[in-house]
Amino acid sequence: MEFHVCTLFPEMIEQGCQTSILGRAMDKGLISIDTTNIRDFSTNKHMKVDDYPYGGGAGMVMQAEPVYAACESAKQKMGGQARVIYLTPQGRVFDQKMAEEFAREDHLVFLCGHYEGIDERVLEEVVTDSVSIGDYVLTGGELPAMVMIDAIARLVPGVLNNDVSADIESFHDDLLEYPQYTRPAVWHDKEVPQVLLSGHHARIEEWRYEKSVERTAKWRPDLLEKHKKNTCIQ
Ligand code: 6GU
Ligand 1: which of 7, 9, 61, 88 to mutate, most ligand atoms within 8 Å of CB? Predict the structure, then answer.
């Protein structure tokens, strides 16, 4: 799967994505993460890409032409057909279901804004999806793009070592994940729950499900309601 990020801060994306699981997935050729610097498409001799907002107001607005040229160049590199995701607090809120939907694409272009936003006219022409990562305001779209790339890339077959774990963790079936333990069996006088040492597979599954429900009830009652609706239990 190919990711391409249009940004004023390409080094942020490059450095943030080259470690750990994403870095290894790139080395293995399972994903690629490329960047286009919007500033390279400035039409101004000082390489400026922003200007004052028409109608006045605080801050600067990114100009249409450099953003357009950067996105078109990125799309071209991916065969001309990719969805273009604009990262904005005004977008649809990102969740696991959206990650699964985007993971079915072969190419994705991310557009990161800065300043007070981007000239609306270019957004109308190039953006296919506007996405937010939650109800708070960040200084730019780079961190949200990295959050989305991480969530999508780990769904690409082979990126995680264990193929099952993407299915059974938090948010599958709208439940949070059960608690995990590893050796030693006693630590700071705390024992690992006995059932996990029993080797009794069915009982372990049952215990884990109970713990998932317990946790979800405590921290995310909204999710538990969804879970109950979908599994027809009360
Ligand atoms: Cl996608 N961008 C910015 N600037 N702030 C955000 C966001 C995106 N999602 C939540 N806050």
Answer: 88
